[in-house]
Amino acid sequence: MPALPLELVRQIVEDVVDDVNDPVYYRHLSVVSLTSRLLRHEAQRILFRDSGDLLTTSAALKKTTMFLDIIISSPERLALYVKFFDIVFDEWLCPESDETTALVQKLAKALGAMRNVKSLEIVSRTIGLRSLPTILPDTYFKLTSFRWSSHSNDMSESTDVKVDFLRRQDKIEHMKILGFIDVNALKSMSADILPYLRSLCLTYSVTETLLPGRENITSLRWVAPFVDPTPPPHPNLDAEFPSDPETISRELSRIKYLSYGATNSTAPAPSIQRIAPFLTGLVCLETCRGDVKELEALSQLPRLEVLVLPKEAGGLMPTMHEMIKVATSCKKLEQIDFEDDNGRIHSFEYCHSSKTPQINTLEESEWYLWINDHDEFDDD
Q1: What is the tens place of the pLDDT at every residue in 11-41?
Q2: Entry's InterPro entries (predicted)?
Q3: Residue 319: DSSP 8-state
């Protein structure tokens, strides 16, 4: 019997497991890979393409360890299938225990075997996990997406290792770095690294180091750092960021998607009045609910089509009157997407000819699919 064409085999497997968000996605792939010799290769390719969310909680650690062991045991086949790798070190992990040390060493060995990884996400909620940067030196992949989130107390650890890693990773297009490297270390090499960046997710202070001179960045997220047990004194960034808007005015004018959260004690949001004059190319703004009242600033965004207002603690829901005023002040605005206090997503639209507003409730999947079209960071 002649073998089926590879394209047909691949389509069969893709159709069997066509939804990565399905809870039984990996179970279906495992069944296919074990029961059909014909489909095994393609099923394993898809099964190991994405690690899924690997966790270090007591309930999930066995699965995480098993995945790493399999990768290490098959460096010439299964390890090469991995394209997306994510792992989260939870806050209850003991950073200096033998178990944690062994896990970090195993992770380093597995990453060394995974030569085709394109997207790497490391999240460390474990305070004091200073050995984590040791996973970076012996890697051979070329990433297009790199996300690292950890406590800023660990930022000064292994600076040389992190600098070398960023110098080698010259294909990254999407990057999120929280608590990864000290700003002063970045300043000395910023102009020589990451030439293809298209989207950034970082704290305000790092923006003024990485953004200047990068003409391809059109998507920008400002996020708060992880809260440390003893955070350093924080300046009032609402007043001081950007410290000199002119230094990044050209870069801000290229931003099409901008996202930042509500003001809090660790990272106050930038003033929309202060940055609006420079956001001349902005198409989508995801901001805190309070900014719906800033009509003068919003009206300075000539290309704004969508305003997104997520749910936030203590923030008041936008009123119909407020949204109508925004719609009439922003001539190109097409919709205001907002999340109510129960997590439901709604879309407000205003018909200028009839002067009538309309609100529709969206499915969550519809909303995130739309956001991903505008936010290049999620377009991996």
Answers
A1: 666 666 655 555 566 666 666 666 667 677 7
A2: LRR_dom_sf
A3: P
